[in-house]
Every structure is written in C-alpha cells, then in structure tokens.
Amino acid sequence: MNTSADDGSPERAGYRRSAGTPRGEARRRELLDRVTEDLAVNGLVDFSLRRAARAAGTTHKVLLYHFDGVDDLLRQAVLKLRERRTVSAMAAATGGPAGRTLADRVRAMWSMLSGDEPGLRVLDEAIGLAMYDPGRFGWLGREASQLYLPSLVSLCPVDWSDRRKLEVAEMILGALRGFLVESRTSGDAAGIAAGFEALVRALEREEAAAGQDD
C-alpha cells in the first residue's frame, strides 16, 4: 500500500471537506462506491489517493474535499466492504430451516466467508496490514472485531448468559480469522477443513454442556 506523503491531507493541502449538504453527501457516496469497487477488485497493494482518484474518475483534490486523506478514504472503503460481508455472512447463518444449532449456523457462515468473491480477499489483506504496522493500521483489526462480534453473539442461543455468548463469539471470531489467514497464506485446504471440523465439534460440545447446565 502506498502511503507516501504526496497523498496529502485536507489540512496540509489546503482543501476543506464536504459540508454535509445533501448534494455533497450524494457525491461523497458516489465517490466512495467507486473507490470501494476498485479496492474489492485490486486489493490493498499500491492503494493510494491517486489510484483512488483514477478509479473514481476524478482528481485527488476532489477526494481531499470529501475525505480526510488516504487513511480516511481507506477506512471508509474497508468499512463498506466489511458491512457487505457481514450482511452476507449473517444471511447465510440465519437462513434455512428453524431450529438450526450454532454449529450449523457457523458452518453456513464459513461456506460464504471462505469463498473468493471480490472484496473478501482484501478484507483478509487488511488484517495482514494491521499486523504489519499496528501503530498505523491496527484499527483495521480492531474495527473488524467491533463489527463482527455483536453479530456472532446474536447467533448464540438466547438462553445463554451474556458472558457465555461473548466467550463463544470470541472463540468463533479468532478461529475463523485464523482459518482465513491460513487459507490466504499456506493454501492448506485439508488442514483448514480439519481445523474447522474441530471448531464445529467444540461448538456442539458447548451447546450440549449449556443444555446440561440448565
């Protein structure tokens, strides 16, 4: 990812941000949509304000009018992709027949998350960037957790305690994130599948134990 100083910021370049008028907000959404689609297709490598401007069909000065520099633009685009991913994952997890177990729901979610649709890979790249430079990009990982955890908590049985829901949601998030990173790095499909089945069995045991505690 190109984060050189020539990407600028509104303060340094002397531009002002959109004032939030309906017309300005509509234009901002249009630009963000175009940049997000470019990010989904081409990933984080060499992402810069100038590349974003080309994708949006405008100039970097116009982008600096609407966004607080390249980091803000990246944050907004990644958030947009994550929201799409969360909606798709939750639709997969909550669809189907009633009475599905948590393990069933996580299996359906994983089937969607492990695909190779545009936008999925770049979100996994974002976690790698957060690990590479946590001082600048740690928010890529933190914001992912803040977005996904409530959704995972909502998949847990309603009669579980809040603490149990959070603990299990954290386990699911950590495991699935690890599997995704592994799939993008080693490509060990057999090993990932084995690990996922172990996660499913752990969830089945957790549900069985919770039932015995009632």
UniProtKB/TrEMBL annotation:
Keyword Electron transport: no
Gene Ontology MF, one: DNA binding
Segments of the chain annotated as binding DNA: 48-67
HTH tetR-type domain boundaries: 25-85
Keywords, sorted A to Z: DNA-binding
TM region(s), chain numbering: none
Listed Gene3D superfamilies: Tetracycline Repressor, domain 2
Keyword Lipid biosynthesis annotated: no
Region ranges (Disordered): 1-27
Name of this protein: TetR/AcrR family transcriptional regulator
Organism of origin: Nonomuraea rhodomycinica
